[in-house]
Amino acid sequence: MERAFQVDLRGVVDLLSHHLYTSPQVYLRELLQNAVDAITARRQSDPDAPAVVAIDPPETTGDGTLRVRDGGIGLSEPEVHELLATIGRSSKRDELGMARHEFLGQFGIGLLSCFLVADEVRVLTRSARGGPTVEWTGRSDGRYRVTPAAHERPEPGTTVTLRPRPGMEQWLTGAMVADLAVRYADALPVEISIGGRRVNSGALPWQHRHPSPAARAAALREYAERVFGFAPFDVIDLAVPEAGLTGLAFVLPMAANPAARSGHRVYLRRMLLSDSVDKLLPEWAFFVRCVVDTGELRPTAGREALYEDDLLADTREALGAQVRDWLVRLAVTAPDRLQRFLSVHHLGVKALALHDVEMLRVVDRWWPMETAAGPMTLAEFRRRHPVVRYTATADEFRELAAVAGAQNFGLVNGGYAYDIEIMRRLPLLDPAITVRRLEPAELTTYFEPPDPALEARLRPFLRLAADTLHTLGCDVAPRSFDPPSLPALYVLSRAAAQAEEMRSARSAANELWAGVLGAVDATGAGERPQLILNLRNPVVRRVAEAADPSLAALGVQALYGQALLSGHHPLRPQDSALLNHSFLGLLEWAMAAGGTR
Ligand SMILES: Nc1ncnc2c1ncn2[C@@H]1O[C@H](COP(=O)(O)OP(=O)(O)OP(=O)(O)O)[C@@H](O)[C@H]1O
After folding, report:
1. How many Å apart are CA 232 and CA 230, to the nearest integer?
2. Any idea where the domains of the chain sit in the sequence?
3. 150-183: b or e for each residue (b if 16 or more CB lie within 10 Å)?
4. Which residue ranges make up the annotated binding site for ATP?
5. 205-333 adopts what CATH topology?
6. CA dist 222 to 270, 287, 323, 502, Å?
7. What sign for the dihedral angle of Cα 401, 407, 412, 414?
8. According to CATH, what is the number of the domain 9-198?
9. Cα 283 to Cα 279: distance, rounded to the nearest angstrom
10. What is the 2 CA–ligand 1 centroid distance (Å)?
């Protein structure tokens, strides 16, 4: 024998309140939604039927109840049994069970949300299609009663009456109800009145009429301040017809944390869904907050978020394209404003440039990168240098910028987020653009070697310097270069850097691994780091000309240590030991020299 499911309503209400809805306040949204849907249904056959929803809070009813009245389609007695007493049954779906466009509701569970705040819900209703007024009383324990009404309603329509459950009265007060009605229903195309006073504007902010574009801009600015808490840098009109979507994007005037979720305000057929919808826009567009209305995107059953489907994915892309077009337009029509925008939101734009050629062009032309010759755009950089050379890290840039700048060697700091990827994508703008990571040894080709006479004079010192650093695996090279204030440069070719990593790994490894790494290292033999001594530096010259070899050796050690430190190179134990040794040795020399004075 087949039987029907039994439903324990208390379990269902518990499920709704703890898992589906985030707050009991949704009961009012559901009541307003039902009232508006009923009005829509009635006006399909009777366009002159009243489009008013009247709310009477306990302060006006005087009996502690809240009433919501509409002049909508109403329900006949069979409909009451069918629709109000069956969970999941809705009159707002078509024969195929699809949500009908003209209605807000679709799931057939909304009325249950009244049990979040009341133990008893009374519905007094008269159908516009005829029949007497019926009264349905539902209780949160799952029982309901349908009786003929004591008094006939003078007009078709429905009145829902809630008596607050003890402890839930605050959700039904006049002030709370007014607040919720404006929040959820301000834009609904019906009049919503509380205690006889209209409380909603009936229009979305971008649909209001204004005497001039300036007046519209001022009103939208005021709206953004009120709703989002900031005066927007700019306002972008949005439209995605496939999603029945219109709206606005407000550009933040201050930097936003890309990781922080910026919620968008979303209306569904003019009823507020939520003001913290995320994933409406692509992630890179974290610099805008939107307010939109959509007829086609689907809500989740809790009606507080959008359902993730293909249409939402397409909409997200379309909205992203509109924000991006605004940026491109700004670059053409108001470059100074674009620059101001970039100074605040460059991270978002750079992220976008990683997969969008137009944005790449914007960054190329307008975003000043850090270069050895000061900040300049990549486009400007290419006018001065044939090759876009960049450092792999900010440390490398810091070490080499002064030297590169002094040789007029073009160098871009690749240490900031996205910059290397952006530079690598430059050939997409023009295949003739050459982009290369700096090989530090390249820079040294610009340095002058000493002339033969000087070289001969320095030979004993250079031999001593080479011996001093030999055990550390470092070669010494004398050169003259600018700036003279820089005494020495520790230069690693990329192969040398790898070999060095291997060496430091070996010094930290146990015997077995040291053997393995040693075998690997043999392949990188010959690639050793170099300490380039700057012969234009007065201290270097004095060290080179020191009469006492032990003082000269200490000087070389100190120059080596200083070059490692200033280039942020990792110090191995033997490097630290050498630094200590040279420091103490030089101190001893200084003290001795002081003592003889
Ligand atoms: N004020 C009203 N006037 C006329 N019919 C109503 C009214 N309120 C509810 N109903 C009827 O009761 C049905 C169930 O309402 P309920 O709010 O539970 O679900 P829904 O509005 O269909 O969908 P959703 O769960 O998405 O809100 C509705 O489909 C509608 O037919």
Report:
1. 6
2. 9-198, 205-333, 367-444, 452-493+529-595
3. eeebeebbbbbbbbbbeebeebbebebbbebbee
4. 30, 34, 70, 158
5. Ribosomal Protein S5; domain 2 (3.30.230)
6. 20, 19, 21, 62
7. negative
8. 3.30.565.10
9. 7
10. 29
What is the pTM assigned to this prediction?
Answer: 0.77
Q: Is the CB of 273 under 6 A from ligand 1?
A: no
What whole-number distance in Å separates Cα of residue 389 and Cα of residue 102?
60
Q: Ligand 1 pocket, 109 CB below 6 A? A: yes
300 pocket-lining for ligand 1 (C-beta < 6 Å): no
The answer to whether the peptide bond before residue 570 is cis (omega within 30 degrees of 0) is no
| CA of 242 relative to ligand 1 center, distance in Å | 27
Output the DSSP codes for 155-218: SSEEEEEEEEPTT-GGGTSHHHHHHHHHHHHTT-SSEEEETTEE----S-TTTS--SSHHHHHH
CB distance 105 to ligand 1 below 6 Å: yes
Tell me the best of 39, 80, 83, 160 to mutate to test the pocket of ligand 1, counting ligand atoms within 8 Å of each CB and taking the most. 83
Which of 340-354, 360-374, 475-489, 511-525 has the least mean pLDDT? 511-525
CATH topology classification for 452-493+529-595:
Four Helix Bundle (Hemerythrin (Met), subunit A) (1.20.120)
Give distance in angstroms: CA of 24 to centre of ligand 1: 18
In this structure, the number of other CB atoms found within 10 A of the CB of residue 429 comes to 16
Ligand 1 site-directed mutation target among 90, 101, 102, 115, most atoms within 8 Å of CB: 90
Q: pLDDT tens digits, residue range 209-262?
A: 999 999 999 999 999 999 999 999 999 999 999 999 999 999 999 887 766 666
Q: Is the pLDDT of residue 106 over 60?
A: yes
Cβ(40) to ligand 1 under 6 A?
Answer: no
Domain 367-444 class in CATH: alpha beta
| 199-215 as b/e: b if 16+ CB within 10 A | bbebebbbeeeeeeeee
Amino acid symbol at 134 = V
Give the side-chain half-sphere CA count within 13 A for 162: 29
Summarised one tens digit per residue, pLDDT across range 469-524 is 999 999 999 999 999 999 999 988 766 666 666 666 666 656 655 555 455 444 44
Ligand 1 touching residue 370 (CB < 6 A): no
